[in-house]
Amino acid sequence: MAPLSETIRQAFRSIKGNWLRAMLTLSIIAFGIMALVGILTAIDSIITSLSDNFSSLGANSFSITPKGNELGGQRHGRRLKQGEVITFDQAMTFKDRFDFPARVSVSYTGTGNAEARYADKKTNPTISLTGVDAEYLYVNGYDLEIGRNFVPTEIESNLQRAIIGMDIVKLLFDDQPEKALDQSIYVSNRKYKVIGILQSKGSSMSQAGDRIILVPISTVKEAYGTQNTNYNIAVAVNQSADLDEATDAAIGTFRAVRGLKLNEENDFEIFKSDGLVSILKENTVQIRLAAVGIGIITLLGAAIGLMNIMLVSVAERTREIGVIKALGAKNRDIMIQFLVEAVLICQLGGILGVILGIFAGNAVSLLIGSKFIIPWAWMFLGIITTTVVGLVAGIYPAAKASRLDPIESLRYE
């Protein structure tokens, strides 16, 4: 039996001798693997981007919302009974009573159509004006570029202070954060002094994180609050391992705040920051299966083409096979030789397809502003798949070649 290295070298020589046919089949395999790896990589990029975006709430965070307000507001086709809004007093009472080692933020978006002005410059009326407390930046994953956060006296005393996003800086202060600090801007005809600039949240899914103005919650409550205003409660625990325990404690505390009796169901819901990403991951299972199906259909065509090439190769090399057998080669040696050739063609196509698939999938990453990822799992899947295709497509031609009679083969012309 010839060494494996010599068998592989012989396979390369055979492929080189029929390079045009081999390249055509190799290309079909490459496009099949590219479709498979590319789609799966693109899905992973989207999931990664979403995870990064929703981690703005913090990986260890959750929010409390009225029942029926969030995803899951419908069950088995029926809409759940709407819970009462969370009032300002309820939100602040919960913040005072919640004694779990965590940070609690209370906020309220007064309007998403505010217009900001400075001197003779103004923004489009697409700015989000949000009232926050001192914990809002930490709980929601914001960092300051320059300046400072609100202090408790500013939150409680309804002072006209503001922390602005980078888009506001670009539009009003020529993209110079230092120029914006300590200046006064007008938002919906109210004057605010800028005390801080938020770091850019980037453009991974939207620019909403940068088109925001944060002011003390008491200010927004006075300007926009009504009896039906719902205030947002967000909680960030110190350790991710404590998240489940913290949610249980929050449910107990908020039930007491809402005055619910023991036999009454919760009229609010706990929404974890990774909840939507988990739902999306579950819903992408069908897309992944579809991608695998597309790849398999393409590879099936490639397998048929490869089998045809190998059968033609057997016919063309019948005399060569007779000579090799006459020199002492066994049926097993012939079979291994042809199998190695089939697998080698598939592996070359698979490697090319994996490379193309990585770049095709990460093109989506560039479009949505996500980071470049190397899909190791899908790379291995592509290589394993091409190996299986090579074995399946090569087994019959290899068996046929190994069973050729040496005497008849030597007479073949």
How would you portray this structure in words?
β5 (116-118) and β6 (121-122) form a beta hairpin. The protein is α+β, with helices and mostly antiparallel strands and 413 residues long. It is elongated, with a radius of gyration of 32 Å. The longest helix has 38 residues, at 331-368. The strands form two sheets. Strands 1, 4, 5, 6, 7, 8, 9, 10, 11, 12, 13 and 14 form a twelve-stranded mixed sheet that branches. It has a two-stranded antiparallel ribbon with strand order 2-3. The chain is built from 15 helices and 14 strands. It has two domains: 4-53 and 283-411, no CATH class; 60-272, no CATH class. α2 (19-54) runs antiparallel to α14, α3 (88-97) crosses α9 and α11 (285-316) packs across α12 (318-326).
How is the topology of this model organized?
Layout: H1 4-17, H2 19-54, E1 61-66, E2 74-75, E3 78-79, H3 88-97, E4 102-114, E5 116-118, E6 121-122, E7 127-132, H4 136-139, E8 144-147, H5 152-156, E9 161-164, H6 166-172, H7 177-180, E10 184-187, E11 190-198, E12 212-216, H8 217-224, E13 232-237, H9 243-258, E14 268-272, H10 275-283, H11 285-316, H12 318-326, H13 331-368, H14 376-402, H15 406-411
Parallel strand pairs: 7-12, 9-11
Antiparallel strand pairs: 1-13, 1-14, 2-3, 4-7, 4-13, 5-6, 5-10, 8-11, 9-12, 10-11
